[in-house]
Amino acid sequence: MKFKIYSHLHRVTYGDCTQGNHVYYGRYPYLLEEARGEFFRYLGTTFHDYHKKGYLFPVSEVQLKYFAPAKYDDELTIECFITILKGARLGFGYRIKKGSVNILEGETLHGCTDSKNKVKRLPNQLKDRLNSFINDKAS
Questions:
Q1: Model confidence, pTM
Q2: Contacts for 5 with CB less than 8 Å, ≥ 6 apart
Q3: Cα distance between residue 35 and residue 91, in whole Å
Q4: Domain map of the chain by residue range?
Q5: Which of 13, 34, 74, 116 is 20 to 30 A removed from 137 (C-alpha atoms)?
């Protein structure tokens, strides 16, 4: 299965950086969340819209692999793609690049629950929207 990629641009802010002018390693999950939120917005909805309908998507796992530092004022491309879309599970893969340089690769895994943490199947509307980013044809 081949996945289509959504790309989001982020300019590194001063607040993202350590005194050594690297993006602080703990900031990367925020950048991934920013890209994931913009991906949902691109699909025509927001996480908040789903929350209002009683769907939450808590993170159950995060994996990050760092390759090179990003610095203040760098323009980063954050690539986001679907890795899992099944039942109550949703996974996103990420690549952060500065030009052709790989900065980070990662994945977040999410469950779908209600506000009382009871597992729910992913809403059909969301599955339909996300399925547009899954391409079963090999390229």
A1: 0.89
A2: 79, 80, 81
A3: 14
A4: 2-135
A5: 34
Q: Which residue has the tokens 């999410």?
A: 110
- pLDDT of 132: 81
Average pLDDT over every residue of 24-48:
95
Cβ neighbours of 17 (radius 10 Å): 19
CA angle, residues 83, 89, 92, in degrees to nearest 5: 30
Whole-Å CA distances, 1 to 85, 134, 137: 12, 7, 7
- Using CB atoms within 10 A of its CB, is residue 105 exposed (0-12), middle (13-18) or buried (19+)? middle
The answer to whether residues 57 and 110 touch, using CB atoms and an 8 Å cutoff, is yes
Architecture of domain 2-135: Roll (3.10)
Residue 80's CB is within 10 A of a number of other CB atoms, namely 25
Angle, alpha carbons 46-128-43 (nearest 5°): 35
| SS3 state at 114 | coil
pLDDT digits (tens, 9 = 90+) for 112-128: 999 999 999 999 989 98
